[in-house]
Design brief:
heterodimer; A: alpha+beta; Ubiquitin-like (UB roll); 2 helices; B: 390 residues; Oxidized Rhodanese, domain 1; 2 domains; elongated
Chain lengths: 94, 390
């Protein structure tokens, strides 16, 4: 049963403009790995070169930040929604 | 929020002005006097700062500070509603002050024409009760966050991109700060800016009024502040989502053992080197072409291939004649369309995206790809001023 992952606007350019993608996996780590296998360009935006999740991208399972759960080992179950919440600079054009 | 021991009473004119507040039990005379005794600093008089400052002025916040050093531009008017068409070319602070005084002459408007920095932030922010962050760049965002934590001032935060907004209240007592959510900024260039991505003009209106609402609630001490909660707004789906935010005990600024106890160099922290543009520094002069060289090439009809890596919407606004459009994001998947091309000149709006494209092309074996310095904006300035700029 695939889990829905909500893609924020700045990263949709790497998912073929989709705002929701689906991936299989029992944990957040597995989900994200499977997702970035499909959308390879996303990988460098989510992970550092040494494979750590980038610290300007927050990953939520439902309304909770995985850093305060089990990080990438946080389990996902049917019906959960995973969200990627990136930092956004916002404001006017420069 | 501390209120002066003997708060000033409202004049009859003020009673008339604020009557719709005064008859509400949650505000009443006490709340209105708290607003009058309070001070709020808006960082930026742009998209977010416009509704924030206008509504806070209308609401009767006694002292309203604004930090900005920019000049009103035509491209601001689509969303920065505090400025009007006759204000184009004026300093934003002057234009904002006029608008606010017209809305409510009772409000004392203070303008700070400075670029906020580690050297002045504590002094500027220190003079206010509540800070509203309407900044547009990461160095200032982290600077404002850290200064608010160090000063113990709540920060009504908002951020926008295209159709999506974020809001929260950071650095409130016992609440999380921006760094609890994002300990570090993204490296430059990895997250597109609004200049590249655009923004729905109404979006800052929605997010800014949320920030203003939170400022007023903090001042009056009513309701549930947006502390420990992160609001994400999607205008296209017209949906608000609320995420939990927690104070991180290991946060470098507001954690139990903070490592940041004074303001730092935020340009360096965010990897921004002031003089260098976003262009790839590894791309030397050999990778560059000038608009004059391109024009000469076109005039010679030597068949130069011009690759435009902007988005289709941008191409629609203006384009260099004869250019081929492949947006940067699509380029890796469409390299085969360029097979056999020799010299090609790659351009975008001002040169940052095309520098990335040239690197990508060269890595893929297109050794003769060159970046058009200054992009189509330079082309318009130097070669064809009849084209519209955006």
């Amino acid at each position: 049963m695939p889990t829905r992952i909500l893609i924020p606007t700045p990263l949709r350019v790497y998912t073929g403009k989709q705002d929701v993608v689906e991936a299989e996996g029992g944990t957040v780590g597995e989900l994200l790995a499977n997702m970035t296998d499909t959308y390879t360009d996303l990988r460098k935006h989510l992970y550092t070169d040494d494979g750590r999740l980038r610290s300007f991208v927050a990953i939520y399972v439902n309304d909770d930040d995985i850093r305060f759960l089990d990080k990438e080992a946080t389990p996902v179950k049917e019906g959960d929604t995973v969200s990627i919440i990136p930092s956004v600079a916002g404001g006017r054009a420069s | 929020m501390t209120v002066a021991a003997a708060p000033p009473a409202l004049s009859n004119a003020e009673v008339a002005r604020y009557s719709r507040h005064l008859i509400m039990p949650e505000v009443g005379m006490d709340g209105q006097l708290k607003l009058k005794a309070a001070s709020v600093l808006c960082i930026g008089a742009g998209g977010l700062g416009s509704p924030v400052a206008m509504y806070l002025a209308a609401a009767g916040v006694g002292r309203l500070g604004i930090v900005d050093f920019d000049v009103v531009d035509y491209s601001n008017l689509q969303r920065q509603v505090i400025h009007g068409t006759p204000d184009v070319g004026r300093p934003k602070l002057e234009s904002a002050r006029d608008s606010l005084q017209a809305i409510n002459p009772e409000v004392h408007v203070e303008t700070h024409e400075v670029a906020l920095s580690s050297g002045n932030a504590l002094e500027v922010l220190g003079g206010y009760d509540v800070i509203v962050d309407g900044t547009d760049n990461f160095p200032t965002r982290y600077l404002v966050n850290d200064a608010c934590v160090l000063l113990g001032k709540p920060n009504a935060y908002g951020s926008i991109f295209r159709f999506e907004g974020q809001a929260s209240v950071f650095a409130a007592k016992d609440g999380p700060c921006y760094r609890c959510l994002y300990p570090e900024p993204p490296p430059p260039g990895l997250v597109p800016s609004c200049a590249e991505g655009g923004v729905l003009g109404i979006l800052p209106g929605v997010v800014g009024t949320i920030q203003a609402t939170e400022a007023v609630k903090l001042i009056m001490g009513v309701g549930e502040p947006l502390v420990g909660r992160f609001l994400v707004y999607d205008a296209l789906r017209m949906r608000f989502r609320e995420l939990k935010l927690r104070r991180d005990p290991d946060c470098p600024v507001c954690g139990d053992n903070p490592s940041v106890t004074a303001l730092i160099d935020y340009e360096q922290f965010c990897g921004v080197t002031p003089a260098a543009p976003a262009a790839d520094s590894s791309a030397g002069a050999d990778d560059d072409a000038t608009v004059e060289q391109l024009k000469a090439s076109i005039d010679r009809q030597d068949g130069v291939f011009i690759l435009d890596v902007r988005e289709p919407q941008e191409y629609q606004i203006c384009a260099i004649p004869g250019s081929t459009l492949i947006p940067l994001g699509d380029l890796p998947g469409r390299l085969h369309e360029l097979a056999g091309r020799g010299e090609m000149i790659v351009h975008c709006k001002s040169g940052a995206r095309s520098a990335k494209a040239v690197k990508l092309l060269r890595d893929a074996g297109f050794a003769q790809a060159k970046n058009l310095r200054g992009g189509i904006l330079r082309w318009i300035d130097a070669v064809d001023p009849s084209l519209p700029k955006y």
